[in-house]
Design goal:
By secondary structure, the chain is α+β, with helices and mostly antiparallel strands. It is 20% helix and 44% strand. Strands 1-2-6-7-8-9-11-10 form an 8-stranded mixed sheet. A two-stranded antiparallel sheet has the order 3-4. The protein has a two-stranded antiparallel ribbon with strand order 5-12. The longest helix is centred in the C-terminal third of the chain and has 13 residues. The N and C termini lie far apart (67 Å). This is DUF177 domain-containing protein. It comes from Xanthocytophaga flava.
Length: 200
């Protein structure tokens, strides 16, 4: 379909009889036939997508990807916008919850003689490469978006920190304020006087 000087293609992970396809060809882009200009691609994925990755850090989730591809004679710039949600397990309660995704990432493919990764964002691909597959990029961007501490939204009003044993200790805002008040009560009177001067 031709629209505003851009070709828009839609791919999705297909399900046959309740089973996922055995590969990720739905995320292929045939770059050999692309002219040097901008394109937009749409992708979708669900639980079946994550099951295709061995030892996946995500089991359940749904997402949509808007991929802006800009091809030139020397490189291809890929700009990803990923939205959706993935299922995580709360570190505190072990309850499962949906974690929202709103990811914007960039990746650059430079044309060269040999395939080689230069940095996390830049890699070289053979100039005669006919097809690229963006599934791995999408998966890695989603995994990198997982927070270090996975906390259920219902605990959002609570503060948490690690104690000396490395265990997470949770305190509500009320407990935090009470703790601060006690600290003020126990402060050396001389420091209290200095604090009053600084506040003035």
């Amino acid at each position: 379909m031709f629209l505003n000087q851009k070709y828009i293609f839609t791919f999705a992970v297909l399900i046959f009889g309740g089973c996922p396809v055995k590969d990720l060809k739905g995320f292929d882009i045939d770059i050999i036939g692309l002219k040097d200009k901008a394109y937009t691609f749409d992708f979708e994925g669900n639980n079946s997508f994550f099951k295709l990755f061995e030892n996946s850090l995500v089991e359940n989730g749904v997402f949509k990807v808007k991929l802006y591809l800009d091809k030139s004679a020397t490189m291809i710039q890929l700009n990803f916008h990923i939205t959706g949600s993935i299922e995580l397990t709360c570190d505190r309660s072990l309850e499962q919850f949906d974690y929202p995704l709103d990811i914007e990432e960039k990746h650059i493919l430079k044309f060269g003689e040999d395939d080689k990764e230069l940095t996390d964002e830049i890699e070289i691909i053979n100039r005669h490469t006919a097809t690229i597959n963006v599934a791995q990029y999408i998966y890695e961007f989603i995994v990198l978006a997982i927070p270090m501490k996975k906390i259920h939204p219902k605990f959002a009003d609570q503060q948490y920190e690690e104690n000396e044993e490395g265990l997470l200790v949770y305190r509500s805002k009320e407990e935090e304020e009470t703790s601060e008040e006690k600290d003020e009560e126990n402060i050396d009177p001389r420091w209290a006087a200095l604090r009053k001067l600084n506040n003035n």
